[in-house]
Design goal:
By secondary structure, the chain is an alpha/beta fold. It is built from 15 helices and 17 strands. The strands form 4 sheets. It has a 5-stranded mixed beta sheet with strand order 1-2-3-4-5. Helix 8 packs antiparallel against helix 9 and helix 9 packs parallel to helix 15. The longest helix is centred in the middle third of the chain and has 23 residues. The termini are far apart.
């Protein structure tokens, strides 16, 4: 039988990626512990780290596999990218296209903001470093995250693009055909506050600061659990309702969602805690009104140039004047146009929990680092 020669680089890749064991001179891989995240698995080997992202919409399948290799050894892997089902990423990343403000905020906190070389949706980013970088030309503005400008992406020459995946999106279209590695940031599909925050360990590996990411997560976890423990022993749990209607539909967080869990951990009796959904519930105004009118506290996230007022609430829907929370001064709003709620809270649920405990249980005397929700006057 004729024997065929296999290229050296391909042999090296088979050794590196073909099993959970490396060559005879290297040890077996060590799984990086994940205490909360369900959709992320990472295994560290002597010469690489293998990352598997489970498909959050079909947990029996894999969304993406990555092989993180030292950038100095990338040439050994580069020529085999087409034949390898995993995406090979040279680390640390030096030039990243970051499509979401939340990841821009995390990279700044990890001290690697200089690696941000392109962003999307500048109008929704409240990070001075990014806005100043775009103005100075250090950071490219790719435009819309749904339809970014390909020429601008190519000119920025990113090592990788960090993009949030969506169910049944059909891929990334023309962006995918650029040949630039795509990091699928599916952290937002985790169903608990600490699970999402734990993804910072993955991003720490990508940007060469794993110790810094591990330390940050440890401090977030410790503070979150300490606050949760304090709120668990309260004598009374005030009732709570969330959000307000838009175009005749009231979207409220399910009891199994990140916000539903935060309300519970903050010591509230959330009025939709009995609904196990992990996302939002689209309900009629009348349905939510029936429960919500008796709530002690009403938390609303909104986006407008001026602060929300009780006059505006009751003008939009006069029956709101009969809400217990409106009469007792228990309405609090988070203006997403001026706060950094979405940039900070996914990786700092401890800050959000502290703010919620401050509102729900003022008797505990919790001092919150950030005041995302302010009393609606």
């Amino acid at each position: 039988m004729e024997k065929k020669l296999i290229p050296l680089a391909l042999c090296l890749l088979f050794v590196a990626c073909g099993s959970h064991k490396t060559d005879g001179n290297a040890s077996e891989g060590d799984t990086i512990p994940m205490r909360y995240a369900h959709n992320l698995t990472m295994v560290r080997y002597a010469d690489r780290t293998e990352v598997t992202i489970r498909n959050p919409w079909d947990t029996t399948s894999v969304l993406h596999r990555y092989v993180l290799v030292d950038a100095r050894n990338y040439s050994l892997y580069r020529d085999t990218r087409k034949s390898n089902p995993s995406t090979i990423i040279p680390v640390p990343l030096q030039r990243a296209g970051v499509f979401t403000s939340v990841h821009c905020g995390l990279l700044q906190e990890l001290g690697v903001q200089s690696a941000i070389r392109g962003i999307c949706e500048l109008e929704y980013i409240n990070i001075p470093y990014v806005r100043q970088g775009v103005a100075a030309g250090r950071i490219a503005n790719f435009g819309s995250a749904m339809e970014p400008t390909l020429e601008v992406i190519m000119d920025a020459e990113p090592d990788a693009l960090m993009i949030s995946p969506f169910e049944n999106s059909g891929g990334y279209g023309r962006v995918e055909r650029l040949g630039i590695p795509i990091i699928e940031c599916a952290d937002y599909m985790e169903y608990s506050p600490l699970a999402r925050a734990e993804w910072m360990k993955f991003y720490g590996l990508l940007f060469g600061v794993p110790e810094r990411a591990d330390s940050l997560f440890q401090s977030v976890e410790q503070r979150y659990l300490a606050l949760k423990a304090q709120a668990a022993h309260v004598a009374h749990r005030p009732t709570l309702i969330a959000e307000k209607p838009y175009s005749g539909v009231w979207y409220v967080p399910g009891g199994g969602s990140v916000m539903g869990i935060l309300y519970r951990d903050a010591g509230a009796d959330y009025l939709y805690a009995d609904r196990p959904e992990t996302g939002s519930l689209a309900l009629s105004v009348e349905t939510v009104f029936e429960r919500g009118q008796r709530a002690d506290i009403w938390l609303i996230k909104y986006n407008q140039s001026s602060p929300l007022t009780l006059r505006q609430l009751t003008s939009d829907y006069p029956p709101f004047a009969h809400f217990r929370s409106v009469g007792s001064g228990g309405v609090y709003g988070c203006n997403q146009a001026t706060s950094r709620f979405y940039e900070e809270t996914p990786y700092h649920p401890d800050r959000l929990l502290a703010d919620l405990v401050r509102i729900i249980h003022p008797e505990l005397g919790i001092q919150s680092e950030k005041s995302y929700f302010c009393k609606v006057e």
